[in-house]
Amino acid sequence: QGLTLKVLELLREAVDDTDAYIVGGAVRDGFLGRMPEDIDVSVAEHGISHFIQTISSITGARVVVLGERKKSLYMISPKGMPRIDITILDGDIHTDLAQRDFTINAMAIDIKSGAVLDPFGGMNDIQDRIVRMVSIRGFEADPLRIVRMYRFSAVLNFEIDEHTKMWALMSADALRGVSMERVRDELFRILSVDASWKIISSMENDCVLQKLFPVVKYMVRVKQGEYHHLDIWGHSLLSLRMLEETVSSTRGSLIHPEVVDYLDCKLVGGRKRGQLLKLAMLFHDVGKPFTMKVSQGEIHFWGHQDVGADIIRKIAAKLRLSNEEQVFLSKLVFWHMFPIFLLKLHKKGEDYKRHLNRFLTRVGEDVIGVFLLSYADLSASRGPLSDKDDLNVLLDIAQDTIDYYFIKVKGMYVNPPLLNGYEIMRVLNIPPGPIVGRIKDELRMVQLSGIISSKDEALRWLKKNYGERSD
């Protein structure tokens, strides 16, 4: 399953009398009924040239070579098939499999005979849904396997074997020497699952997350006052859970028509906005431990969003994220309190909409991300002073603001206004002032909603609703 007959037939045609094996994740995914993104093939050195040339000739796909000599990786991307990654077999197949990380990845299929090689019980662990190490020396050989252990648990929804986790944690200090680019790629695979908060929680409980991001230890056991029932870390983790449940729930009334495309949009390196949004959620209050003040017996974190925006940008730089991604994360953390400001204005009976233009000019379409963060943040705030009705009000404000952005602010670049301020003043015979701006905005919304579409219709609407005035 998952490995199509077409691919197997292609590989068998190319194999000749050479020892060649499908190895690793493709075998695992095949037995799980998942279509692999790529197929790893190990071929004996003496037959690798013929193998590669035959596949390239049959498929018409060119070969991309990375690395040198015995460490080379040959990549072929046949049309309509998973990418085929070919390497030289390291010794015999049993030696190759013994050097792999987990039993579920230490299986092979002999391309010539179709026989499954499973020397470490990977099939049993797939059936039992267990992530188990091949060797106790595996984590010493490559400490990144510690993060991969959590990643496979998250992506496959497998449990981690108790002894495997014990040996992994014994090697956890070595994570500090691992390239952060490699850590980043594993972390974003974890963030791709719907309930990544569970694995992130496990990583923190096991003190692995603190090895990767030392700032986490400052967030643990820091109380937040009566609007919160959890410490900073507990609240951040619950916020991530609320964000994931809001996004994935079919009942999520915050799911505006534009939200799905927004979250699925890829920025750099195939990383999606939705994954970055989760990272921002996890660290949205990272500035609080460094801004905590006690005034008249109450705990305050004035300016924590400013400090947090700087810290998350440093975290993003450490992960070797692009400048575009760094700006995105910093923007979300900096503005995540603004929707709460709008909520407070609304509760006071004030017009919050007069503050939207400046806000939307700064955040643009990331208004979606900001409100998602703020909504999840408020959902996770359950202290005795929390108002349960606030969530519904914030939801209404979010819908109005997002609509306002996509209809009015973004729409104005597609359809220019039918009347400008000078024309409105001339038709109504009124002087410059705030009333002109309010009429212009109202006329603009009527235009963008499709009620009027020409200058003559705009003039008739203006005269009907405001009348012609004379001195």
The dominant shape is: globular
Q: What structural class do you assign from the helix and strand content?
A: alpha+beta
Strand share of the residues? 5-15%
Total of helices: 24
What is the tally of beta strands? 11
Tell me about this structure.
The chain is an alpha+beta fold. The protein contains 24 helices and eleven strands. The strands form three sheets. A seven-stranded mixed sheet has the order 3-4-5-2-1-6-7. A two-stranded parallel sheet has the order 8-9. A two-stranded antiparallel sheet has the order 10-11. The model has no long low-confidence stretch (mean pLDDT 88).
Describe the secondary structure blueprint for this structure.
Blueprint: H1 5-15, E1 20-23, H2 25-32, E2 38-43, H3 48-59, E3 63-66, E4 73-76, E5 83-88, H4 93-98, E6 108-110, E7 116-117, H5 122-128, E8 130-131, H6 138-141, H7 144-156, E9 159-160, H8 162-170, H9 180-190, H10 196-205, H11 209-212, H12 216-219, H13 232-248, H14 259-264, H15 273-282, E10 293-295, E11 298-300, H16 304-318, H17 323-335, H18 338-347, H19 356-363, H20 367-379, H21 390-409, H22 421-428, H23 434-448, H24 455-466
Parallel strand pairs: 2-5, 8-9
Antiparallel strand pairs: 1-2, 1-6, 3-4, 4-5, 6-7, 10-11
Helix pairs in contact: 1-3, 7-9, 7-10, 10-13, 13-20, 15-17, 16-17, 18-21, 20-21
In summary, what is this structure?
With 471 residues, this protein is an alpha+beta fold. It is built from 24 helices and eleven strands.
